[in-house]
Amino acid sequence: MAANTHQRDFTREFLSYIQVEKGLARKTLESYASDLQRLNHWSTKHGKLIQDLNRGDLRKWIASLSREGLAPASISRAVSAARGFFKFLMLDGHIKRHPAEELDTPQRLAYLPKFLTEDEMNRLLAAPDIATEQGIRDRAILELMYAAGLRVSELITLKHTDLDILAGLVVCHGKGSKERRVPIGKSAIHWVQQYTAVKAAYGKPSSPYFFLNRGKPLSRQLAWALIRRYASQVNIKNVSPHTLRHSFATHLIQRGADSRSVQALLGHSDISTTQIYTHMTDHHLRSAYDRHHPRARGAAAKGVKTDD
Questions:
Q1: Which of 35, 105, 135, 234 has its C-alpha lying 20 to 30 A from 72's C-alpha?
Q2: Quick one: 169 and 272 in the same domain?
């Protein structure tokens, strides 16, 4: 208990210091307090006093924030809070070295975005009630987003002229007016055709947009809501439209696609942005290996003879 009290005192002293010295806004102070509480919790969990943490510890802490699903901007802010905190400790004579100085925040690689397993993806795709017209539309939305790795902005601005069903292609209008052509598979083509037939029953649509809601273009808010609703139905948490894009890329990499091909399919201008999915797959494979390989947990260290 004494160690926890000591840690809380340091945090409170630092927050009082930056409030007085820097005149930070209340919201900023609250954010710093929250970030340092996370660090305090992590250090206590690992049996260390916060002032005894080293750079290696802080890197592990950053990785834990990524695994919790914290956004890159939130991780950067947390690291900024830690830098300020340790600088304060050093200036006040509590520590001799600054462990957070020049601490990297590799946002792209440290942040592992959420993706669904193939089983979870199949459950999500099967969630809409295809006995209804809305269900057919929603199934087509989910299938196409996953088949082409669409951003939600690309989904809601998709036009009839962007789909070439015979060629199995969709034209995506991405960030910065960039255009890319992405192939889509038989499943997505089937549900796009089903939805097209449903729309045709009402005559020629006046809107050039492909996905409609009561005759109007699909909104970003509705796209988010329907994906979350179907995810909730099949007991999958924290799913957003971007989760389907992450799943698209991750599953391609897991099944052997090369980074350059996935880069082109996603419309990334920088290969380093795409390489996060390789990193995610490495993490996934390591986790699977550690769980299932009979020699992964140090059999040799327990006196089991090993062969070269």
A1: 234
A2: yes
Question: How do the pLDDT tens digits run along the chain, 308 residues long?
Answer: 333 434 446 888 888 888 877 776 778 888 889 999 999 899 989 998 888 888 888 888 887 887 787 777 788 888 888 888 888 888 877 787 788 776 655 444 444 567 899 999 999 999 999 999 999 999 999 999 999 999 999 999 999 999 999 999 999 987 666 788 999 999 999 999 999 999 887 766 678 999 999 888 999 999 999 999 999 999 999 899 989 999 998 888 888 888 888 888 888 776 666 666 665 555 555 666 666 666 666 544 344 443 44
Distance of alpha carbon 130 from alpha carbon 137, whole angstroms:
8
Q: For residue 146, give both structure tokens.
A: 């996953």
Q: What angle separates helix 72-91 from helix 26-45, to the nearest 10 degrees?
A: 80
Is residue 298 assigned to a domain? no
Both 239 and 153 in one domain: the answer is: yes
